[in-house]
């Protein structure tokens, strides 16, 4: 734990300058501030809510100059206080840190800093002078003392982010791509997204919107429609990616012997292959099915994600020169050892989780007519829409589960002919892991929900499902993790008649793809064991990501894993190890210290409610697999982009020695 010599954070002043180094108490909240990288001590930390100094020889003037210099370079220039004020303050601090100014400059700096804080139009300007003003208010004596000489050379790094960026698993620069929409530069906006992953149109339709949950606009009215804006730019420039992506885009091809195998053409595998190809590596993608997309292709219905959209984005891999090898299942058509014997120098396992789990209740039998797992049912729906092995449902259908797969099964069952669809979920509605919008869409289409209810027995007759026995549940204390323990209500059993029964309670990795000789371990949850930072497995040269590593998750998480794996593989092939990544270290500090958790600037913001996305009428759409959500117009996109408050924040560390550079 670090010892705070002096500083201010959230208006709380720390001043231990009169104490000896070992008299200063260690602050338990400052865990993780001892060193930035191995052997490189953190001497000071600056952010939007103040600053801390941990070493006596830190030049406060120089550190503040660095911080304001970063703010000046990041200013969008749309308001005068931030555009001009930050540059003026930067230049005055530069004069002072070189010992050429007089203490009277501090009064001028303070006046400008307060004006910037109170009158800037975005989060960057409203917060960038907070540490400077804190220093002027409480430690001006230190600044005046330092101004009498010249500042020593200092090391460190600056990091610019926003709550929405930190919430996004792929760390997409959301305010930047929204800025480009406001400027009418749609292609530039798409380019910002494509820096992180190739499936912008896909993600713009099915992303679970972690960024919107973190959006500071929630404290005013409603979150900015980040997802719909992403879809807007991807659809507007749908033909541009085919022009952008070709082998000509790769400036420095890697030698052919550094070939990489990617196992699985789902979002994680496609993302990894995409980033490796852009780095010049020859890449082959092995896919067990006859089409790309993984569970996104077979598990997400067309009314949410049209298949041609997903397919066109997955094919970017081929346009960049990679190979997509279909009907190639690991464990059946090739082995991990076999890939290395063929000459591949690294392998990324993106196997997904395509094995469904049964409930294990009395009477459950996969051979019964009308009995499905969620994954199997969605696969049958997918095949039917592709013109193969079509099926229909007749009568009521019951789905067990509370995630997005359960919602997809319910809405698809209606479209496949079910007269009624019931969802049975063991906890309350607010506990459902499914996206709230998906729950509401299912309800609008007529799906009936049974909360605090579990199935206990599947009823059948003549080899066909005829009903499911369910029982109501009630709370009975909490477990070790703080979750409510649910127990059956005595005498509350009843039979819900149905002809279709779908268990949509989760998926798992197909362990038949990996043998004991492969040197790959599984954790207690049945997922491949890999380092959370590098995604490296126990076997040298083998990395794993996506659902087979994390368990069933989201497309954006999978694509973020693909990017991380590509970086790790790049380092492994060139250096034999994964290098230190300074931006990841800064993100860990921000997350561990929770510097984004309480921030809010009390600047009046005009209420502007978000654009309401038009949808097909529920009575019509429940019979069709046509895409439910309609695209927004350019006028609506401009309005929605204008709601972004550009909540950029700057964080800075001063370190003992220089921070290692990274090409990532």
UniProtKB/TrEMBL annotation:
SMART domains: NADH_4Fe-4S. Residues 61-106 form the NADH-ubiquinone oxidoreductase 51kDa subunit iron-sulphur binding domain. PANTHER family: GLUTAMATE SYNTHASE [NADPH] SMALL CHAIN, GLUTAMATE SYNTHASE [NADPH] SMALL CHAIN-RELATED. The keyword DNA-binding does not apply. GO terms for molecular function: 4 iron, 4 sulfur cluster binding; FMN binding; formate dehydrogenase (NADP+) activity; NADH dehydrogenase (ubiquinone) activity. This is Formate dehydrogenase beta subunit. InterPro entries: DPD_II, FAD/NAD-bd_sf, FAD/NAD-binding_dom, NADH-UbQ_OxRdtase_51kDa_CS, Nuop51_4Fe4S-bd, Nuop51_4Fe4S-bd_sf. It comes from Desulfobaculum xiamenense. Its EC number is 1.17.1.10. Keywords: Oxidoreductase. It is an enzyme of class 1 (oxidoreductase). Pfam families: Fer4_20, NADH_4Fe-4S, Pyr_redox_2.
């Amino acid at each position: 734990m670090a010892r705070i010599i002096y500083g201010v954070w959230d208006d709380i002043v720390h001043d231990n300058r009169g104490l000896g180094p070992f008299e200063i108490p260690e602050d338990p909240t400052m865990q993780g501030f001892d060193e930035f990288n191995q052997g490189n001590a953190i001497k000071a930390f600056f952010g939007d809510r103040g600053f801390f100094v941990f070493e006596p020889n830190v030049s406060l003037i120089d550190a503040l100059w660095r911080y304001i210099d970063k703010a000046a370079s990041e200013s969008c220039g749309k308001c005068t206080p931030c555009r001009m004020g930050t540059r003026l303050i930067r230049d005055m601090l530069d004069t002072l840190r070189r010992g050429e100014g007089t203490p009277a400059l501090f009064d001028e700096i303070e006046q400008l800093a307060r004006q910037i804080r109170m009158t800037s139009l975005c989060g960057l300007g409203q917060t960038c002078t907070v540490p400077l003003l804190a220093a002027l208010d409480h430690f001006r004596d230190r600044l005046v003392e330092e101004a009498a000489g010249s500042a020593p050379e200092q090391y460190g790094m600056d990091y610019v982010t926003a709550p929405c960026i930190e919430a996004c698993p792929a760390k997409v620069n959301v305010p930047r791509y929204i800025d480009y929409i406001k400027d009418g530069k749609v292609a530039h906006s798409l380019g910002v997204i494509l820096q992180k992953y190739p499936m912008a149109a896909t993600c713009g339709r099915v992303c679970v919107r972690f960024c919107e949950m973190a959006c500071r606009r929630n404290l005013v009215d409603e979150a900015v429609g980040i997802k719909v804006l992403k879809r807007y730019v991807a659809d507007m420039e749908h033909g541009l990616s085919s022009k952008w992506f070709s082998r000509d885009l790769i400036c420095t091809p890697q030698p052919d012997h550094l070939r990489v195998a990617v196992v699985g053409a789902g979002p994680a595998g496609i993302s990894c292959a995409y980033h490796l190809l852009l780095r010049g590596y020859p890449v082959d993608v092995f896919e067990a099915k006859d089409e790309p997309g993984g569970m996104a292709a077979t598990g997400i219905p067309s009314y949410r994600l049209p298949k041609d959209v997903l397919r066109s984005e997955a094919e970017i891999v081929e346009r960049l020169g990679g190979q997509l090898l279909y009907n190639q299942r690991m464990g059946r058509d090739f082995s991990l050892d076999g890939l290395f014997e063929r000459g591949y120098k690294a392998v990324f396992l993106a196997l997904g989780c395509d094995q469904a789990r049964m409930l294990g209740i009395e009477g459950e039998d996969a051979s019964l007519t009308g009995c499905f797992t969620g994954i199997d049912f969605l696969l049958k729906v997918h095949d039917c829409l592709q013109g193969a092995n079509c099926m229909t449902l007749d009568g009521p259908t019951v789905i067990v589960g509370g995630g997005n797969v359960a919602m997809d099964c319910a809405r698809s069952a209606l479209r496949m002919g079910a007269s009624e669809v019931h969802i049975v979920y063991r906890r309350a509605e607010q506990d459902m892991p499914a996206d709230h919008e998906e729950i509401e869409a299912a309800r609008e289409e007529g799906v009936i929900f049974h909360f605090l209810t579990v199935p206990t027995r599947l009823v059948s007759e003549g080899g066909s499902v005829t009903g499911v026995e369910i029982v109501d549940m009630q709370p009975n204390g909490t477990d070790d993790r703080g979750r409510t323990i649910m127990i059956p209500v005595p005498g509350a059993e009843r039979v819900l008649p149905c002809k279709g029964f779908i268990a949509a309670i989760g998926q798992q990795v197909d362990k038949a793809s990996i043998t004991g000789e492969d040197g790959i371990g599984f954790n207690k949850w049945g997922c491949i064991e890999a380092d959370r930072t590098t995604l490296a497995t126990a076997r040298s040269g083998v990395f794993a990501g996506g659902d087979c590593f994390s368990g069933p998750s989201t497309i954006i998480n999978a694509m973020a894993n693909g990017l991380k794996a590509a970086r790790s593989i790049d380092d492994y092939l060139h250096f034999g190890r994964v290098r230190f990544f300074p931006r990841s270290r800064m993100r860990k500090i921000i997350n561990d210290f929770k510097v984004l958790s309480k921030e809010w600037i009390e600047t009046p913001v005009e209420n502007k409610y978000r654009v309401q996305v038009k949808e097909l009428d529920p009575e019509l759409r429940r019979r069709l697999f046509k895409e439910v959500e309609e695209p927004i117009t350019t006028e609506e996109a401009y309005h929605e982009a204008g709601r972004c408050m550009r909540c950029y924040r700057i964080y800075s560390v001063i370190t003992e020695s220089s921070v290692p550079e990274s090409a990532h």
